[in-house]
Amino acid sequence: MGLVFVWWLGCSGTQTLFLPPDPSSSPQAPVGAAPATDATDATDADATDATDADADATDATDATTGGAEPRMEGALEPEGALEPESVGGADGGTTPGGPGEGPGAEAPPGPGAEAPPEEPAPPSPPGASDDAAVLEPPEPGAPAADAPIAPAPGPRRYTLDPDRGRLYVVVRYQRGGLGGSLGHDHVVVARGWSGSVTWDPDDPSACEIQIDVPVAGLVVDPGSSRSWAGLEGSTSEKDKATIQDNFRGPKQLDMAQHSTIRYRSTGCSPSGDRVQVTGSLTIHGISSIVRVPMAIEADAEEISASGRFDAAHTDFGFSPFKALAGALRNQDRLEFVIDVQGRR
Predict the structure, then answer these.
(1) Is the CB of residue 184 less than 8 Å from the CB of residue 173?
(2) Which of 13, 177, 274, 343 has the fewest Cβ atoms nearer than 10 Å?
């Protein structure tokens, strides 16, 4: 704008001179003039217009809803309160009284109304795995899915200990006749033998028994062995040596040709409170099938087995010992006794 200079010409009046603005100089406010308010007035005018527009919108909303105050989302209503009736909307449809619902939406069911059926779950996308399904909780008492399952015991092999067990045969003489009064019963005990037992407590049929007895380890009436069979008296060392030479000789066990007596089980089956063990007994080079009812007790570390059976000399191809032209002789029957223990 131009510059206005006012100066005083005495006391009678004033003279005003207007100069056009200099394009090369920045406009400056005249000395003592008030700051420009054009921008402020424009801002205030815009704000006033926006406020007026909000007021118009509020008036329009009140006219549409009939002046009803909007409900707060989640606010509680007194029990039994009636739902507001729908009123005509600006588009000619029905607008529910609740906030946030578009034109044409249905009002929520009133008290006592039946809830609408649930929509079925959307189908799984192609390629989705069934593993995504929700798993049912395990039944009470059922083992956890990740809990390790203890393995079954299975067959166990035990080594028999000859120092803790007994293997022996009772040989009885033939009563009656001319030499009957000269005969004696004897106990022949096995020493230095070896053996093993394989036993499955859940499957007795899987048992396996092996025993080897050296003929040289058979001794007559050692220690208190006669009492095991209920025999009285004792046997002299000379008679023991004579008896041992007789049964080891070629007419009986023939130790020179058959140095070992062997037993191998071939099957086991429960029989009451015992186990019927069937096996092959080899003496003097000849095998014979024998069946022995045995009591077997076993745990994770030890086993014990006991039983007895009868066999005959002639079952193995030789005759009982005899002397004095047969006037003194032994019975054909032999009584075998087994009472063994073993450890794993």
Answers:
(1) yes
(2) 13
Q: Would 259 be classed as within a structural domain?
A: yes
Question: Which range of residues forms the domain containing residue 176?
Answer: 156-343
* Residue 171, C-beta contacts closer than 8 angstroms, at least 6 positions apart: 185, 186, 187, 188, 330, 331, 334
Q: How many residues does the chain have?
A: 344
Residue 80 structure tokens: 């039994």
Nearest to 99 by CA among 79, 77, 69: 69
Q: Which helix (H) or strand (E) holds 241?
A: helix 237-248
Does a structural domain hold residue 133? no
95 occurs within a structural domain:
no
Amino acid, res. 306: S
- Dump pLDDT digits (tens) for 226-255: 999 999 999 999 999 999 999 999 999 999
The 10s digit of each residue's pLDDT in 122-163 is: 565 555 555 444 556 666 665 555 656 655 668 999 999 999
Q: Which stretch of DSSP H or E encloses residue 49?
A: helix 38-65
Domain total of the chain = 1
State the amino acid at position 51 in one-letter form.
T
Q: How far from the centroid of its chain's Cα atoms is residue 121's Cα?
A: 34
CA distances 57 to 50, 98, 314, Å, are 10, 19, 127
The H-or-E segment that residue 261 falls in is strand 260-271
